[in-house]
Amino acid sequence: MKVIAPMSVTDSEVTSTNIAATVHPVWDAGTTYAANDQVYMTGLSGKAYRTVFESQLGSNLGNDPSADDGTNWIEIGATDRFKPFDRKIADTVSKATSITYQITPSSLVTGIAFFGLDAESVRVQIYDAGLTEVFDETHDLVDDTEIVDWFEYFTWDGIYDSEALFTGVPGYSGHRIDITISAPTGTASVGQIVLGRVHNLGTTLDGTGIGSEDFSTKERDTFGNAILIEKPFADTVDFQFSFPTRDARRIKRVLDGIRATPSVYFANDDMTEFGTTVFGFFQNYSVPLGHGGTSFATLEIEGLV
């Protein structure tokens, strides 16, 4: 079992992209805003990206959007360019044929994960400080696991993975990471791009389970007819894993460091087909210590929407 502890991606890390910067003025306490005017703010707690707010009334003067309760301003989210880094998988960014990002990380990156993909392939290239290519890997997103016979082969409608995971990435601080999300004959989309350092927590065991938490509402009217309102759902994974007892302090240190940070949890580099890769958080954890040198633990992860 492993986890990617993510880095924050800011204006300074994104050195190039083909996603146009959304034009919004920065909020100014001395400016009067009309209803539906949009502004952005930076430096908000827990948000490394530009956050957009929309005015809810006319003659909006001196009301700080970041401290508002929704009366004067509502938060719209990140600008298009930074949607892949705003921790909202469902809020995607799209562009015809391809999406490209060039990122110069300010910290070590050994893993990159993608969620909410709608594309044919994802390519990651890394260049060192001298612009020598040191990594080049492409993941084909075609999912052909349903093709089990000739009938399925000829009737297959084309299914693509919505996730991609790259590990063993030599993304040292100051290196250049080039990302290309391709859909040559259509529109490429991505919900989240997560970059960070991979930490090994232990060995994934039998009994690890996947599921989902559905936020749709299901009610019945006075005649018993079902009223279903579809809403988003979150992936969940209950990890069962083992680890050398002597690693308990290190594991606790890793988990404590990301306790309030959505991170990427996965079973192993070669086990992505099991559906255990999830971008989310844990509520609490307990790491029991074993007498024989090996300990066994459970970690429940709830994914982001």
From TrEMBL:
<protein>
    <submittedName>
        <fullName>Uncharacterized protein</fullName>
    </submittedName>
</protein>
